[in-house]
Design a protein that fits this description.
Structural class: alpha+beta
Largest sheet: 5 strands, mixed
Distance between the termini: 45 Å
Strand order of the largest sheet: 16-15-14-18-19
CATH topology of the largest domain: Glutathione S-transferase Yfyf (Class Pi), Chain A, domain 2
Number of helices: 24
Number of strands: 21
Protein name: Signal transducer and activator of transcription
Number of domains: 4
InterPro entries: p53-like_TF_DNA-bd_sf (IPR008967), SH2 (IPR000980), SH2_dom_sf (IPR036860), STAT (IPR001217), STAT4_CC (IPR046991), STAT4_DBD (IPR029839), STAT4_SH2 (IPR035856), STAT_linker (IPR048988)
Main location: cytoplasm
Keywords: Acetylation, Activator, ADP-ribosylation, Coiled coil, Cytoplasm, DNA-binding, Isopeptide bond, Methylation, Nucleus, Phosphoprotein, SH2 domain, Transcription, Transcription regulation, Ubl conjugation
Family: Belongs to the transcription factor STAT family.
Length: 743
Amino acid sequence: MSQWSQVQQLEIKFLEQVDQFYDDNFPMEIRHLLAQWIESQDWEAASNNEAMATILLQNLLIQVDEQLDRVSQEKNLLLIHNLKRIRKLLQGKYHGNPMHIAVIISNCLREERRILAAASMPVQGPLEKSLQNSVVSERQRNVEHKVSAIKNSAQMTDQDVKYLEDLQEEFDFRYKTIQSLEQSDKNSALIKQEMLALQAMLNTLDYKRKEVLSKIGRVIHEIDMLMSNMLTEELLDWKRRQQIACIGGPLHGGLDQLQNCFTLLAESLFQVRRQLEKLDELLTRLTYDGDPIPVQRPQLLEKVNFLLYNLFRNSFVVERQPCMPTHPQRPMVLKTLIQFTVKLRLLIKLPELNYQIRVKATIDNNRRFVLCGTHVKAMNMDESANGSLSVEFRHLQPKEMKSSAGSKGNEGPHMVTEELHSISFETQVCLYGLTINLETSSLPVVMISNVSQLPNAWASIIWYNLSTNDPQNLSFFNNPPAAALSQLLEVLSWQFSSYVGRGLNSEQLNMLAEKLMGQQVSYNDYQLSWAKFCKEHLPGKSFTFWVWLEAILDLIKKHILPLWIDGYIMGFVSKEKERILLKDKTPGTFLLRFSESNLGGITFTWVDQLENGDVTFHSVEPYNKGRLSALPFADILRDYKVIMADNVPENPLKYLYPDIPKDKAFGKHYSCQPNEVSKPSDGGVKGYVPSVFIPVSKILNDSTEPHSPSDLLPMSPSVYAVLREHLSPTVIETAVCCKLFHS
């Protein structure tokens, strides 16, 4: 079943997450129509290879054209229209930057895998539960309801101001009419009656002025309360969700809803401001003793301007944190002289501001680093698929300045990966006579000068964003706080779901907890130190816990990803637990686990039964990325042979734990079937017999462990079959043993 087919079968809450990251940058229609083709391409490799990305973009457009031809024959007018629009959009948007669409599609596929992994997890962790709190959802609905009510109140007040204006015009006309009469006429009874009517009208005007000012005051108060409480909390929650999403957590939505709230509040405040201006205009035409306008209007206007300043300042946010396109799963880690992207948004979306706000990007204030590339750009509504007022910097590069002594400061492999920096942004909004200076900053970033520093830098990003919601604590690692182990384990599972498409289950997390704590106890209330996570070596080892885990992630990503996604690698299980699981199983049952003593190694252990009925276990020496680069792991499992004393080579691996036939589990991942391997007379270089590598181990009578799996014999299965026809098993064993121990 294709990945897209699995996505379509998800529950609605997960489908809503999928919907969030498909837009005009990569329309869902294309994902749906070209599902199998898209999943068969290596978009991640293309995101770092312009030539490959160019070819993939061309092939993508060809695929769209083929779909157009198909739907044209079906006369599906709506789909024809959409596909033509999408094709034009894709060609125009990515023609000059094909790597960008490769990054986008790669990210979309990765997010799908993460969501599929999250959907398969039976229990949510404490962090994810807190992000999906029902109280938070209720507050979101309340904010939207109150904003809508405020907008309606402001519009109703507009009608009151208009009524007041009409009433004053009538009063003004009637008053001037009387004033234009001769003095003798003013003493008539009719005029005296008119004067009484005018006095009553003036009283009404006074009442209506007070009423309008009172209503304006209530609208301002409602906006003030909403901004000070619920809206501020909503914005802080969104920023916290963004932090968690950056370290592999659930996708953070809600920014469009916040934009709607901010925009409506800004429109309401500007509407109130115009109402106050209208009252000032009415004041210049008519005033009287006890007039409320000159007393209340200045205070109300000052409050409106104050709220507008605060609203604009809070609306300037980093929509997408700094990230190198080459490492989309490792945001906020920036390499010197390598481009990164960052996107900002103004949540107040007003047409008057389109292309009128120029944003400047800078880094730190210590003059150690500078930003190269285009660091000033205008915000606009044209580049974003949803029409938001935003700006994306795509060509910024951090560069470390030379010290006064002429050296490069700390640049080099020893650059401190716990040193935090900040990318800052500033701009100015000039609108309706207001000038507002805006500033915001990215979450703390870590600078590296060598890719080898990436794992430890990423550990710093994880620890910071897990431990604090302070967006600008650049001295955090001067005294890093401990983290709740239960939350850390949840984040570690996210590393696997986001980076390699499948998270960790409770048994796997328990093993990691034991490895971190050194004992088997409840970890719900356990606090883990930063040093224990990333600084101190594991007992008896020359590496830290994080280096060990990162090496496993790298191994999965590059060499055993399909097997991991299928869930056939138990991975995190101790030797003791391994034997408990296997001891009662059928001989030949095996499981796959990651090595605890070798970085980036995977091994398999199988159970066997001796002649006397005793159970024995055999574990092969771990395979690392060097060996797996030469031979796919699935083929190793298929072809692996063991030579027992006085026996011919045989494959001891029969059933994947608990009882899955090996070929059923791994058959689809074999590079070729055994019966498809060439015979000695087929193909190959002229004069030579074609060969394949077969992993073989020797088990002696006095040993329960195979020697080394790295003895890969250049013997094809067909050659081995021929040898068996002409040689006895003893002769073959003698020859193999010579190869094992003398090569």
